[in-house]
Please model this.
Amino acid sequence: MFNLKPAGRKTIGTSFQGTTIKATANELMILAENNGCEYADNSGETYEKSQYDFEFETPEGVVFTVYDWKEYREFDVHEILRWHIGGHTEMASRVGLKELRKQLEYVRDYQL
Model:
């Protein structure tokens, strides 16, 4: 189930491909921790284009990122937001979406 790994520098050059997911920052933080992945937490820095950044790589080598985009406001970690899923290609973003949906279902059912 928890088969994602940190993507590191492989995320350089990823961008938004039109794919989004609704979730809370708290859910995504739990998901990242379940997979042993670190994330950037710039919460409260409302001048930043994103306050949370998550980077993942699937076992097949598909790299994707998840981030809030231009909220420019403080928000609670339990508030549902629409998160951007970035990738090198649209297909990478869609693979990321599929993996996130599967793992978020587990987080919501068993860890909240």
Summary: The CA atoms of residues 20 and 84 lie 5 Å apart. The first strand starts at residue 15 and ends at 24. The chain is about 30% helix and 30% strand.
